TrEMBL record:
Pfam families in UniProt: Ribosomal_S4, S4
The UniProt record lists the keyword Calcium: no
Organism: Sphingobacterium spiritivorum ATCC 33861
Domain of life assignment: Bacteria
Entry keywords, A to Z: Ribonucleoprotein, Ribosomal protein, RNA-binding, rRNA-binding
Region (Disordered): 1-45
Assembly and interaction partners: Part of the 30S ribosomal subunit. Contacts protein S5. The interaction surface between S4 and S5 is involved in control of translational fidelity.
Protein name, entry field: Small ribosomal subunit protein uS4
Amino acid sequence: MARYTGPKSKIARKFREPIFGPDKALEKKNYPPGQHGPSKRRGKQSEYAIQLLEKQKAKYTYGVLERQFSNLFVKAAAKQGITGENFLKLLEARLDNTVYRLGIAPTRAAARQLVSHKHITVNGGVVNIPSYSLRPGDVIAVRERSQALEAVTTSVEGRKINKFAWLEWNANEFKGTFLSYPERTDIPENIKENLIVELYSK
């Protein structure tokens, strides 16, 4: 699946969650899209359909392609611990997601763009790969020449201090530190990772 570039409200309504951020359309029409609206009879979903929807929700949320998604799952399954939790931790450790979590960008899509356009450094070196996997102790920063970008300054000004326990932010230097992999209880996304594990286990 290529990255979704169509109507975001349609996807948010499909999952009945603000996947791409606050959405007025979702608030007004909190039911799946379709020409028959909320009156349409919807049959009971199969176990496979429920698992597949959860996988799609995670892919849309983190903006990850199918191959990247599958490779991350294999990596998570090979690690010690609970596979589903390991999987979410690896998704959270992506550079684009961390740039978003630090408040440098207002959305993950905007974060991917900043990374791709070489506005972000990791441990002092420019990294333009959104899927780059961070390790505890890595320092993520906005390049000095990019700190005046309106998109960056507006986003940084609106961020909340120490919003996520596994990240540390230095507003004066436009840099943050990936302190550790997050605990599952600290990850705010409403994703039932056990359903994704069940889907891949078939």
